[in-house]
Specification:
about 180 residues; mainly alpha; two-stranded antiparallel ribbon; two-stranded antiparallel sheet; 7 helices
């Protein structure tokens, strides 16, 4: 009978083993939905259109909600005012939306809600972009309005985006 000689292989980091092809130590791709960051070149014009209460913005927001997100038992899964705020951002991503929006309990919205919100905003941006492409005079007017706004040295009034003002308008309309 032969004696078995134990074999021990010591691998040091950075060396090639018999079953390795290269030194690629990059992490494996993560599971789940890939990160999507959408740039919004029309953000300034959308802000001016919202300030002027233009109806095509509301149409695009509702289309984005019903096409991308849908409803459950007749209730929308994402708030339209959140989509209106999201389309005013220069970059739309799930991580950015999670940090900006809160739920009814004062906590950041969950990842799935942020994904729904980003999807609705992307659909709404497509509709707004098509509307501005069909109406170049409107786009020029909104851009001129934004340029005048910037020349005056004014910053964007973020109170226009606040929940309090949105709720105040809702109460004024429902007071009758």
């Amino acid at each position: 009978m032969q004696k078995a000689i134990p074999f021990v292989l010591h691998l040091t980091p950075g060396t090639l083993a018999a079953n390795q092809d290269d030194l690629d130590v990059s992490p494996k791709p993560r599971r789940g939905r890939p990160l999507t960051i959408t740039s919004n070149p029309n953000a300034n014009m959308i802000r001016m259109a919202i300030t002027n209460d233009m109806a095509f913005i509301d149409d695009a927001v509702m289309a984005g909600l019903y096409i991308a997100v849908g409803d459950s038992n007749g209730r929308l899964n994402v708030r339209p005012r959140h989509v209106r705020k999201a389309i005013c951002l220069a970059l739309i991503s799930t991580a950015d939306l999670r940090a900006r929006f809160i739920n009814n309990h004062g906590e950041p919205i969950c990842k799935r809600t942020a994904e729904y919100l980003a999807a609705a905003a992307r659909v709404a941006l497509g509709g707004i972009g098509r509307h501005l492409a069909r109406n170049p005079a409107l786009g020029k007017r909104l851009q001129a309005q934004w340029d005048r706004y910037q020349q005056n040295g004014d910053e964007w009034d973020y109170t226009l985006d606040s929940d309090m003002l949105t709720d105040l308008n809702w109460y004024e309309w429902n007071a009758a």
